[in-house]
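re: ur msg from earlier - yeah i can do the 2-deoxy-2-amino glucitol-6-phosphate complex, just paste it... oh wait u already did. ok heres what im feeding in:
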Amino acid sequence: MCGIVGYIGQNDTKEILLNGLEKLEYRGYDSAGIATLNNYGLHLFKAKGRIATLREKVDTTVASSIGIGHTRWATHGEPSEENAHPHQSSSGRFTLVHNGVIENYYELRDDYLSDVNLISETDTEVIIQLMEVLYNQYQDVAEAFRQTVALLKGSYAIALIDAEDQDTIYVAKNKSPLLIGLGEGFNVIASDAMATLKETNRYLEIHDKEVVLVNRNYVEIQKLDGIAVEREPYIAEIDAADIEKGTYAHFMLKEIDEQPFVMRKIIKAYQNQQGNIKLDASVEKAMLEADRIYIVAAGTSYHAGLIGKQMIERLANIPVEVHIASEFSYNMPLLSAKPLFIFISQSGETADSRAVLVRIKELGHSALTITNVPGSTLSREADYTLHLYAGPEIAVASTKAYTAQIAVLTILAVGTAKAKGMTLDFDPLQELAIVSSVMESLTDQKDTFQQIAIDLFTETRNAFFIGRGVDYFVAQEASLKLKEISYIQAEGFAGGELKHGTIALIEEGTPVIAIATQENVNYSIRGNVQEVAARGAKTCIFSMEGLHQDNDAFVLPQVHELLTPLVSVIPMQLLAYYAALHRDCDVDKPRNLAKSVTVE
Ligand code: AGP
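and the outut:
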């Protein structure tokens, strides 16, 4: 999952490309490059590492009004200058950037490129060399491009320029996200609207297996057979300020602090004039018709799904299964007669989840996507969408999207219960208002959590988060946060399961953080803490008011027992943040990761 940007217009393209790549760096940041074209030819600049390193290499004297750029998350070939994009054809005439994975690149290489010397280890270079071979055959760039794209299998978002034509950027897409931004006398190409928001907020969606000819004054979408396609642009509702760090050192800390306001936005968005829950009638109908719900997601979104299951089963009395998307694709369980699939995805672009969506749509089943990016692939291709209203989430480690997902799943469960005529003693909009002020009081106590993080994590190589019931689900999210940004090996574990083996890993000083917010398991989780403490663990209990005991490390203000994950996770997010900070890790762009995983 890389980031692609392109510009063709009147202005100097360098700055537009480099700024765009900086906005896309959350998608991959192990190497980068740009290519620009002017009367003196094609200018290629590539670098291993961040956009900042690339900036130092770009010759600022080179001016041009057409160019393409790329920031990489390596799939084929290690991060290096040679494997960085853009890649060029042997003659240097054609230059290309690509996001995705070409599954048949071996076959294409063997069938068409046996006498072509490939200089990189990437699947991408096969595309551009194939383009040159087919151009030599067809002597028509647009035709050769369509023929090249028609031979590709897998996921791709491609932008290509021809050294002999300063008026066209050739674009194609399949599975990987790609948008065309429209302007007066210029047009842009971007993996994500955030990259070129400074230039325009009018965007054209490109659908799978389409190619696009992008000129300064027009954009022509075509099917692979060359037939033109008409499409209306849409306005990207993103506030440019939302994608700036402001005074924060890191996007992650900014996004943690935004959670109380996100709760208030969600309360407002899902409330009608009478102050009751407002749920789209078609979503309600889909929930009522389902005999079983299948939640499909990855990573943090999967963790939110675990809590969503509890909400829907407890409040709306509909059986729910939660599945890891990458497993579900290749190991589909027996489905019920009238299943409803719920896809949870911050980005709306996660390839593992999309693969399941394509599959269940082929089987004729209905799908609801809960996402932070309306207009994303998983939203467009589902039957229904519920928006998270969390605002752009830039930090790779997801925080505000997780709590927003839980809040929206709660509202979905209560809305469905009410539609079923069930009476509930639980008003989520009121309870979420309480949650938002408790969140605010927690984010005001950063020093406390910083100190706990320093005590627990400065030296350690591993750590455990334990909980029971819904706290176990939060423990899994807490361990993921710590792992992905501080690189400490951590596990989220069911408190009662430890003694069946994993407790063998506990030794003197092993940090064990327990989350204890549920009355029915309060004593048993505290028993589990005693078990590990007896073996030398450095234990730390985060409890809830009313269930707390003197030696607890931190007592969370009380909220409704169903909503405790929304507050217990805040200290967990901050523990991870400060652990990473004090280990000098790159909090917003952890190694080996990317924000939106658009390859399977
Ligand atoms: C979470 O911090 C990670 N960035 C990752 O696990 C993420 O949750 C996962 O890739 C799913 O992403 P999505 O919500 O955009 O589908």
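cool cool. The mean pLDDT is 95. ping me if u need the other ligands too
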